[in-house]
Fold this sequence. Notes:
Layout: E1 2-5, H1 23-28, E2 32-36, H2 47-52, E3 56-58, H3 60-64, E4 68-70, H4 77-82, E5 88-91, H5 99-107, E6 111-114, H6 130-149, E7 157-159, E8 162-164, E9 168-172, H7 176-187, E10 191-195, H8 201-207, E11 211-212, H9 233-248, E12 252-255, H10 270-274, E13 281-284, E14 302-304, E15 310-313, H11 317-320, H12 322-340, E16 341-342, E17 345-346, H13 353-358, E18 359-362, E19 365-366
Parallel strand pairs: 1-2, 1-4, 2-3, 4-5, 5-6, 9-10, 9-12, 10-11, 12-13, 13-15
Antiparallel strand pairs: 6-18, 7-8, 14-15, 16-17, 18-19
Helix pairs in contact: 6-7, 6-12
Bound molecules: nicotinamide-adenine-dinucleotide.
Amino acid sequence: xxVSVLKESAxxxxxxxxxxxxxxxxxSAGLEVLVETRAGDGAWHSDSSYADAGASIGSRADALAADxxxxxxxxDSATVAALRPGQAIVGLLAPLTxxxxxxTLAKAGVTALSMDMIPRTLPRAQPMDALSSQANIAGYKAAxxxxxxxxxxxxxLITAAGTARPAKVLVLGxxxxxxxxxxxxxxxxxxxxxxxxxxxxxxxAESVGATFIELTSVGPASGEGGYARELTEDERLAxxxxxxxxxxxxxxxxxxxxxxxxxxxxxxxxxxxxxMTPGSVIVDMGASELGGNVTxxxxxxSVVTENGVTIIGASGLPSSMAPAASAMYARNISSLLLYLxxxxxxxxxxxxxxxxxxxxxxxxxxxxxxxxxxxxxxPAPPMPAESAPAESAPAESAPAESSPAQASPERxxxxxxxxxxx
Length: 422
Ligand code: NAD
């Protein structure tokens, strides 16, 4: 069976799905690996380094002809149009926020596996957890961005020219990225506070050196699968108001709050921005085309408010550390592939909880239970990439207890008007 690595097509994306070090294990499992020419350029891996590792190098058309196509991000429309029934595609496909892509892949008869749907709490899924590997990188880089954009020191400095007090950093949202941001800011010498709606994150935040802030106006908001639930409008307003006073007391604020499949919650309002000191910096890791955690933030851009607060719309942070991010992602995607392969062929089993969490389309249908909309019926295509063409899983039969998707069973990407603030 042939597995290919496509060159990423999203603007600014420098990551690559496999690095040369990952090729050997896949070949040992009986797979042929083909890498699109120059696919590794952005992560500083040359075609010759892949060839030395045992991969063949080919054109995009060659790569698109493989049985299984590997990507980091979503395929562009030309790529989707080139896929054939029975072919498999694996990547961070963001199906909860892009139902049209899911429908298109289903109608094309493609077997799509989404790395961001892996049930992260299953112990055997840990090596495949690309959301965590990329969030770790993003959290680290967010703290560095905050430090480099802040016009003062992070650590306490006592010099002949005077004493600099340590920066006060606030991290909002203490999941994987937030914890890494706390640890990194602490290692740079800042005094760090943190807040999350899930009270169970307190001990984790404290263990990496933050002082945890508890809000009196909002109760616990833990959702399913370890994620936060969406707040009600009353809770959201109360949270924003109470947070404002804390935000005003900090020099650098790093926001990481996410609710799977929904718009990121707005935590820093216009009033909170106005109360901040000139020269303060906010790194909004929630910034995306869906909105952000900070009013007025724009993905990929820095804006300065009238009162001198710099808001960095920090999207694409893992791509800014493409070699590290690609190495981790390659381990994640290789682990998934090796898990799915029997005798050199893809052998899918929708009864397996991990696989049911990760397979989103198969046999011409949307099969993931969390993706409510089903593609228009089409005849089940042949499945040459799979050794045993098992029946496509009916949506209701595929359990994914700890999948992130279960936290958001409604139509993905559809934020209610009250969420549209960001
Ligand atoms: P995420 O990216 O979905 O969200 C980031 C953080 O934002 C979360 O901690 C969330 O509680 C917080 N948040 C959401 N809305 C908020 C609001 N209105 N105000 C403040 N904070 C808000 O989260 P993540 O980093 O992907 O992690 C989600 C969970 O998954 C965590 O519990 C993590 O420990 C867990 N996890 C478990 C495993 C495992 O079991 N092996 C692996 C990875 C992650």
